[in-house]
Amino acid sequence: MDIVIKDSSAKITANMKLLNSIESKFILSTKLSVEGPLRMKEEYVEGVLESPTINEETVPEQLRGAFGQADSTAQQLPVPIRDVVASGLKIPLSGTFQRLFMISYLDDEILIIRDTSGVPEVLTRLDVPPSTMAEPSPESWCEYACQSILDDYNQWSLKSTKNRGACG
């Protein structure tokens, strides 16, 4: 899962693969805002489920007949419906879902956040710019942490959310 944060918004991309043959992406767009010294709010704006791509060579033999039927049925759909399906399913989420999270740790390479139940998400920066983060004073670190996430172009990759005991 990759997360790109830029200009107070985030785009989360999850790559999905089914039966080693069907690939798709789910893209979630969110809006980020600072709620306190170390607390941020993430509001979900839109979800897009991209149309799947199918690698026909890797479809299991048992499913090839069903795949062929589904493909021919999809080709028989009216053109306007095929166009909508081809562009992906867009799900408007404006104001429907949101979450608060606390920044537990932030440096040039790692961002650790915790949701309201305390579950950590450990993210690693995909492109580490050469020392773009100036050292803040201890008094201003709280404001610095939230604002630096929103101000800079940051691309993060979610590495683990299952280890609840990690991160202090």
Could you describe the 3D structure shown?
The structure is a single chain. By secondary structure, the protein is an alpha+beta fold. It has three helices and ten strands; from the N terminus they run E-E-E-E-E-H-H-E-E-E-E-H-E. It has helices at residues 64-75, 79-87, 141-151; strands at residues 2-6, 9-18, 22-34, 39-49, 53-54, 89-92, 98-106, 110-115, 120-125, 154-160. The chain has an eight-stranded antiparallel barrel. The model is unreliable at 128-142 and 160-168 (pLDDT under 50).
Brief characterization of the structure:
Its main location: plastid. The protein has 168 residues and is an alpha+beta fold. The protein is built from three helices and ten strands, in the order E-E-E-E-E-H-H-E-E-E-E-H-E.
